[in-house]
Specification:
single chain, about 280 residues, alpha/beta, Oxidized Rhodanese, domain 1, four-stranded parallel beta sheet, globular
């Protein structure tokens, strides 16, 4: 089964109908340093395994590469195997942030040809009782694959005029009104701001495809061709890429280093204010 066989977002009804043939993954993670594992231990959707973003979905960060660079393909494969995930599995991931964190795992899997989707609504949409028992699965047979170059962008490509650069951060950080995390406020010159959290409705569920198309069109995006998505460190930018795919606009590229890399690269200019 290929990634195109499953939509990037699925709902609880789809989860219930396909529960016997998928792996449910809890990918909670917090930028403020709170423990996603501790949140999982306090209560998670029954049957879910915990996938540690810092350990398996990111290499060690640095000013040169950003806060959450992609891990080596071998390390990612080890993490998937230890989580009980095999090449042929469908992986449905969730978090407690409307999917903007779980999007990192889903994008990584789909970019390498695996079947994966975000559980729309995540923890907030699940009304059944939670469980506190830690879940584990037999080791999987996940195969390491090189990250596809056609799904990634480098820092120098952000200044190429033909590329449409999209910033997934909240508007206050994009405009440079505040940035408590990275060294310089602002955004990549010429970037469009499509805050990934605005892809969600007030209940934390993904907006309709028609609404997503309007959101992207308002930023001048009618196709994902030449779109480069970034955020602070390559995590929530994945949500915009998956939303583009879900809306039928195709595949954009991820600048994994995000603002945490760009902001440290003082040779590159910064822009303040709205797009």
């Amino acid at each position: 089964m290929q990634s195109s066989d499953v939509e990037p977002f699925v709902d609880l009804e789809w989860l219930s109908q396909n529960r016997g043939r998928l792996v449910l993954a809890d990918v909670r993670w917090y930028l403020d340093g709170r423990s996603g594992r501790a949140a999982y231990d306090r209560g998670h959707i029954p049957g879910a395994v915990f996938v540690d973003l810092d350990r398996w979905l990111s290499a060690k960060g640095s000013p040169l590469e950003g806060r959450n660079p992609l891990p080596a393909a071998h390390d990612f494969a080890v993490g998937m195997r230890e989580s009980g995930i095999s090449d042929g599995d469908i992986v449905v991931a969730y978090d407690d942030a409307g999917g903007v964190i779980a999007a990192r795992l889903v994008w990584m899997l789909r970019a390498t040809g695996h079947c994966s989707a975000i559980l729309d609504g995540g923890m907030a949409g699940y009304e059944g009782p939670l469980e506190t028992e830690s879940r584990s699965r037999p080791a999987g047979d996940f195969t390491a694959q090189t990250w596809p170059r056609n799904r990634l962008a480098e820092i120098h490509e952000l200044s190429i005029e033909a590329n449409l650069v999209v910033d997934a951060r909240n508007r206050d950080r994009f405009e440079g009104k505040q940035d408590p995390i990275d060294p310089r406020p602002g955004h990549v010159p010429g970037a469009r701001n499509v805050p990934c959290r605005e892809n969600l409705d007030p209940a934390g569920k993904l907006r309709s495809k028609a609404e997503l198309l309007r959101i992207f069109a308002s930023a001048g995006i009618t196709t994902a061709e030449n779109v480069i998505s970034y955020c602070g460190s390559g995590v929530t930018a994945c949500h915009n890429l998956l939303a583009l795919e879900h809306a039928g606009l195709g595949h954009g590229r991820l600048f994994t280093g995000g603002w945490s890399q760009y902001g440290h690269a003082l040779e590159y200019p910064v822009e303040l204010g709205p797009a």
